[in-house]
Every structure is written in C-alpha cells, then in structure tokens.
Amino acid sequence: MSFLSQTLARVKPSPTIAMTGRAQQLAAEGKDIITLSAGEPDFDTPEHIRDAAKAAIDAGHTRYTAVDGMPALKRAICDKFARENGLDYSPAQVSVGTGGKQILYNALMATLNPGDDVIIPAPYWVSYPDMVLLAGGTPVIVPAGMEAGYRITPEQLEAAITPRTKWLILNSPSNPSGAGYGADHMRALTDVLMRHPHVWVLSDDIYEHLVFDDFRFVTPAQIEPGLKDRTLTMNGVSKSYAMTGWRIGYGAGPEVLIRAMAKLQSQSTSNPSSIGQYAALAALNGPQDYIETSRAIFQRRRDLVVAALNDCPGISCPVPQGAFYVYPSIHALIGKTSAGGTVIKDDEAFATALLDETGVAVVFGAAFGLSPHFRVSYATSEAVLADACARIKAFCEEMR
After folding, report:
1. Which cofactors must be present for this protein to function (predicted)?
2. pLDDT, mean over the chain
3. Which of 60, 312, 392, 393 measures 20 to 30 Å from 251, CA to CA?
C-alpha cells in the first residue's frame, strides 16, 4: 500500500517555481544569473498600504477573522467591482482567500466531480490543469496559437463544449502570453456560452490593471449580464499593488458557490491573514495612482523586450496587450545546436541550454501547454532586461 495519495500522482510541481529554484541554486553557487521566470512585480508595496498593515498590528488586529474575509474588506471588494467593472455584488457573494490561487482552487474543489470537464485555452497558467486534476475533473485543452493572437475563437469554444463541460477558465490579460480579450472578442465567446446554460465561467482577472496601448479590459459578466449567475470573477491585490507576498485574493459569484467555497476553506486554511486583509482594504479604498505609474513602467519594459527579442535570429515575439510577460516562438530554432552542444529538440531544451550557457532563466512553453515557445517575465529593471536580451541574442546567433 502506497503511503502517498494516488491523487497526488495526477499532478506535477509548478514548472515556473522549479525554474526559479534552479536559477536561485545556480546563483548561490556563484554563477551570474538573470531570472526572468518569476511572475511578480519588482516594486515595493505602496507606502500607504504598508502603513495600514503596521497600524493594524499596533491596533491589535491580529485575531481570527470571518473564515472567508472580514466584512469591511468584502464591502470594499463590492465597491471595487461596482466602480471598475459595473458589477453589482453583495458581501454574501464575495469570498476572500489566501491569494487568487486559493479562490480558483476552492471553486474547482467545491464543484467538480469525476467526469466533469473544464475547458482551458492554451497557453495557460501552469496551475489550471493541475488544480482541475486535483479536484477530480478533466482538463480539456483548447490551443490558441500565435497566429490567432493566443485567443481561442468562438468556433473552438463551441466545438469543445459537451454535456460533461462544467467550467470554462478564461484569463485575460493572460499569463503567459499577455494576450487580452477585448469587448468584441469577449462578446463572441459569451454569445456561445449563452447557448450552453450548464457551462460556468471562471474569469481570472488578476492582471486587469496591467493593460497597454488602447486595449480596454472587460470581464465576461460585464459584457454579458446573463452570465453573472454562473460566473466566478476572481481578482486580487498581488499584481496591481505589488502585494504578491501578502497573499490576498478574492472572488465574487453566486451565493451558492461562495457558501460552498467558504465551507471548504473553513476546513483547510480558515481565514486569510488578518494583517494582509487590512493591507488589502487600504489598497482597494486608498489612492490608486500607483496603478498608472507601474502600468507605464511595465509598458516601457514590454516595448524594450519585444523589440530586443524580435532582433534575435529565430525568435518571433508578438506584442502583448497586458500583464508583464511575452511568449515568443522559437519554431525557427528547433533542430539547431547551441554553442555548448545542446540540440534544441524542443522548448525545454532551449530554456535549459539558455540557462546553462548564458545564465538567463526563462520558462519553456510546454509548461504552459503550447510549444515551441518560452515565457519571459519583464517584471525587472530595464538594465537587467537589456542585459538578458543581449545574452539571448548572442545565444541565438551562435546556433548552428
């Protein structure tokens, strides 16, 4: 009899965390490493948010709170959805978790049964399929290649839906591609969903505020109010306010789902950190000028990275609409050999050789379900990005 659960055998460790760990190990050995694999802003949390957390500690707000979020924070989340997305929720329709990942996990664990399908467009965030598998469901991957702007079409969505489909997971702007569904693209998908009332929508909006140029963010329930009663709209403070370590995410949806998620959370983590919740309250209710400041910086970094990677032989890098990632193709490099003697048989070989030979850590595309690509996070300084891109260019130029 195996000691470990058979369920655990269904999933794999996060490839992004694994690559970051490998880079950290090499750096600890004294190697000159540039890590472009981690998906978190490199800025400090805004001062007024840090001050609110310190004040909460000094005021003794260090006790348990309600299992899925204190009332004041739920009210602030409702106000945020009304103010920014035109969505009307009550506090009873809101759940606060230990990061956006827990909100997604709770929703899937609370709803999936063996035989249930979850449609996931690829490229996808690495955790989606594994969370579905842990919950006993079946991921149904729908590829959306570079030629389609990394967006699935309504025809693809229609073809993927069956009587077994329970959820569609939609992430816009996307990790890893930065692709976003504008109003027209989103409406085309919601029109399909309205014809299939048994399909629920899990909208991962975590990169909502990191959008560029003339792209305008929309969320499914905003575009099609008829979907609101079967949509969980997830967001959080980690990306918008540089609060990844504070671990506060939230979601809003029908009460029946929110109650089920709270029941699950009550038997796992219980409430998120009380201090993190007070910090999130300050983030949502306080001044929002930080968002535009960071967005402008990320746009400059995006432009630098896209131009530099498109100057690398064999790499094709489209311009993303948001988030802080690019997802270039290395199709033209497959089959070549690096200066260090590695045959680039796939994107994992590319990423491994790039790290070993140049010290630049990226994440290979197969981790996100679409090859041959790799993901670069440009959540670091322009000087570091320029250095990394120069190393990538030299790596490509030396291939034979």
Report:
1. pyridoxal 5'-phosphate
2. 96
3. 60
User: For 305-350, how does the pLDDT look when each residue is reduced to its tens digit (9 = 90+)?
Assistant: 999 999 999 999 999 999 999 999 999 999 999 999 999 999 999 9
Distance CA 30, CA 269 (A): 38
Write out the DSSP string of 307-342: HHHHTSTT-B-PPPSBTTEE--B-GGGTT-B-TTS-
Q: Which residues on neighbouring strands pair with residue 299, listed in sequence order?
A: none
- Residue 101 DSSP class: H
Alpha-helical segments (H) within the chain: 15-28, 47-58, 71-85, 100-111, 127-134, 154-160, 183-194, 220-223, 255-266, 274-285, 289-310, 347-358, 382-397
Count of residues in the chain: 400
pTM: 0.96
CATH class (in words) of the domain with range 6-44+290-397: alpha beta
For residues 195-200, give the mean pLDDT.
98
CATH code of the region 63-285: 3.40.640.10
